[in-house]
Please model this.
Amino acid sequence: MLAHCTLWPEELAAHYRAQGYWRGETFSDVLDERIQRYGEKLAIVSDTRRWTYQDLGAEVERLAAGFYALGIGPNDRVVVQLPNCAELFSVIFALFRLGALPIFALPAHRKFEIGHFCQHAQAIAYVIADQHAGFDYRNLAREVKASAPSLQHVLVLGEPGEYRSLKHLPRLESDLPPPPRPADVAFLQLSGGSTGTPKLIPRTHDDYLYSIRASADICQLTSDSVYLSVIPAGHNFTLSSPGSLGTLYAGGTVVMCAHPSPDVALTLIAQERVTITALVPPLVPVWLDAIESLKPDLRSLKVLQVGGARFNSEMARRVTQELDVTLQQVFGMAEGLVNYTRLDDPIDVILHSQGRPISPDDEIRIVDEEDQPVAAGEIGHLQTRGPYTIHGYYKAEEHNARAFTRDGFYRTGDMVRQTPEGNLVVEGRAKDQINRGGEKISAEEVEHQLLAHANVIDCAIVAMPDAYLGEKSCAFVIRKNDTVRGIDLIRFLRECGLATYKIPDRIEFMTQFPQTGVGKTSKKHLRLEIEARLAGARMNP
Ligand code: OOB
Model:
């Protein structure tokens, strides 16, 4: 069992087993069963590859043997940073079989994030593609290796350079280790984060498989389903809600879209007869416009999921008016809880709410600042506990004491209200995070980096409204002297190796920050300040 993880207390675990949520299966059990049942059926389509379930199984076997021969075994952590491609699945299922733990990095992550994951989790291997979208990941690996002494292997999909190719792994002379147990941690997922360093989320075979199975059921997936993975495949939404893993669970076909541009994605929908896909809100108007001009054949598409950030109900209405699909809103989090509008919900529920939890045993509390329940229908802080929501981040004891209540509820940081029918409406956020069109930025993480600049006395990062992304990030800075310009600070942050989406979209200078009653920087006033400055700029261009 992986150390430094707080899992479910025995009493709750026993209840979840008794209810049949946790079925005592591992990812390897599920894959083996699917290979038996659907062997010749198409499992994954990606660029040049068309893998049947048998092909996938053979690749998983080859990689598991090769990884183990390299010395990757039970409980070893492996950072996996691959674009949307078939090999993502052969790699992670091979690691699952060994009981080694993938850490799902996003393709946008750079030296700062990858270095942190490697150091924090003492990862021994890092899996990358040679290059993708104009970026060479082997260069990144070089930088990361220099700061992560635990890293023993860099494994490359494509041209390996000085590293090892995934194609040429050593031969295994022994047997594979015994498989992991269903209650074991299967992988570490990334938190959107609202603190100084990104947190890692331990998910077990039992809990994740339940959320996948129940999600596939809610979305009515069958072996005829074809899922298009558009946004990064390692994100919880595309991976498991029901995503690619839900589709494989149902015996369907996963189509990997390597670039989210609508012309590529829409062509794939027509070619592969895609039945369901998932988007973040900013992609929706782009798709609708592209559909109007390209007029692709979308007759196969039955369900369009939208989630990851607030989805405006006017845009939701446009979807239902312009496309012959069922819209589904999805409000979830990598820590666990996922809410869906149901496919047969009345149109008002689909347009105006973010749906309801997966499980009858997802416990929801909506509370005030003192953790006391608010009146029915009022807005409050969402806390949750349930069969697939974690009880603690990996190696983060101090933070866990704040992020979870004493009785094990996760403080989501979301402000919600619940309708009389039980649907949740996301009204805002109490956590110090910017949701940049579905990409989450922890303000504190970027502030830490900025404060390291010699000319920065203080800084505060807040969300500012944006017509396309919903929110962008604005850094307010108090500087030592005005020789330092915004562009210098941006360059400085890039050199720190922060992912591009975390670099502030705007830098504003101030000589002092507005304060709250207790003398802390008032981010509320800073948000109003940037809104006023933006409105002023619009009036006096
Ligand atoms: C998903 O997961 P994360 O971990 O990247 O982000 C979770 C946070 C939530 O706590 C909430 O603040 C926000 O993203 N969020 C939404 C939302 N869906 C997520 N805010 C408003 N409306 C929504 N529909 O983003 C995620 C994980 C699984 C499924 C779907 C999304």
